[in-house]
Amino acid sequence: MAALRQDRLAEFVALLKSEGRRGVLGLNCGHGVDGLHFVQSGIHFTGVDPSEENIHSARARGLEATVAGSVPLPFADSAFPSVWAVDALVGLPPEQWDDVVRELGRVAAPGAPIAVVLPEPGQGFRVLRSPGLAPPSR
Q1: DSSP label at 46?
Q2: What are residue 5's phi and psi, to 5 degrees?
Q3: Sheet containing 44-49, strands listed edge to edge, beginning at the edge strand earlier in sequence
Q4: pTM for this one?
Q5: Is the Cα torsion angle 75, 6, 111, 71 positive or negative in sign?
Q6: Sign of the dihedral defined by the CA atoms of residues 56, 62, 67, 68, in that order
Q7: Low-confidence residues of the chain, pLDDT below 70?
Q8: Strand runs (DSSP E) across the chain, as ranges?
Q9: Alpha-carbon separation of residue 136 from 4, 7, 42, 90, 126 (angstroms)
């Protein structure tokens, strides 16, 4: 499972670089392992997590991180060029998923890629786009 997560993270970083995106919000950033990968790849990382202990660990790694839940997020509309939120829906009841995804779309710039894992059977990892701009053609 860890190898699959690393593959997804590497693919997402490649997508961000191909689109010239230089920053990412990491929702439920935990201890900052993924955040370090973004930073080492040259992408500015801002993490949030509801656990003070996790934020302390992320900051100890030199990451910018804040204690916050997923709804509402303490950021302005369109504040981030991308969002890494693969753990955002884990453990939440399905009736809360839409609220979280809407909040991610609010803080993401128009057309920004938003990486999530949809917990429904067969859905898995997805890169959504925030509203307001069509994804770039390839």
Answers
A1: E
A2: -60, -45
A3: 64-67, 44-49, 23-27, 83-85, 113-118, 124-129
A4: 0.90
A5: negative
A6: negative
A7: 1, 132-138
A8: 23-27, 44-49, 64-67, 83-85, 113-118, 124-129
A9: 25, 22, 22, 29, 16
Structure tokens at 123: 């859905």
pLDDT of 1 reads 55
Count of residues for the chain? 138
List 83's β-bridge partners, or say none. 25, 114
- Both tokens of 118, joined, read 């949809």
Cβ-in-10-Å burial (0-12, 13-18, 19+) of 41 comes to middle
Quote the CA–CA distance of 18 and 16 in Å, as a whole number: 5
